[in-house]
Amino acid sequence: MRTKKLGKTDLKVSVVALGTWPMGGSTYGHVDDSESIATIQAALDAGINLIDTAPAYGDGRAETVVGKAIEGRRDQVIIATKVGVVRKPGGKWRDLTPASIRQQIEGSLRRLNVDTIDLYQIHWPDPDTPIEDSIAELVKLRDEGKFRYLGVSNFDTQLMDRVLDMTDLASLQPHYSLLNREIEKEILPYCVQHQIGILAYGSLGSGILAGKYRDKPVFEPDDTRYQFYRFFHEPMWSKAMQLVDVLRETADGHGKPVSHVAINWLTQQAGVTCALVGARHPQQIRENAGAGSWALSSAELEQINQAYSRIFKNNRP
Length: 317
Prior knowledge:
Radius of gyration: 19 Å
Strand order of the largest sheet: 3-4-5-8-9-10-11-12
Number of helices: 11
């Protein structure tokens, strides 16, 4: 498994990491906790060392599952969880008030059954709380040994500037894949300049870039994939399928799954530390972890980029 240093930290992260959003059971349909635990353990066995979770994933269910899965294996795993999205009457709300942050981290430590969180990330900005107030409390918690490194998710460069005025920032977790390259305009260059590691989520476009679909799938109306991934809607769907055909040709040339090509394209971009890959079954993560054992050539990367430019010339996602 290839590894990369996360920003300015001393953490060496596997280029394929496991995301646990599906394991919360609140967005992707029914999940079995014993299967989720087996999946996390299979990830560790395959050389993956970063597990990313959040209290928002099933109101703490995913964190609890992670805690059970890593029991006895704490030294093999980098635990990354989040703060700032909590359930209140009427639904989930962003809350980065100092009192709430302290309450949230205690809950995460309890569910994960760990003494210290390796990477603690602000899940989403809270427009009602000055970021300076939130960071001041987080710095206190870090000084108390509750977590080691601070990260953020879904932040723009202006907000990251305000964080950096107060403390170090280890990482950013943005939506980034071959189907969503918006961060290449400003955010990715900014992170490279400031040595902020990138943990990319949505790296397989909810399965599209794994070659999982031959026909356009039909989900339930409230399925998160319809709301969160616009690639399941035309005209993006047809264009995505053209791009997957290109990835499949490259994959066939190596005798590898299509997902490996999409993951390796992503992890070979400057500034990207790892690709977060969701999985619900052990075989899924074993297969995707295999991408970390090889890399695309410069010529192959260029061929994929040229195909992307041609396919999305008039309608870039």
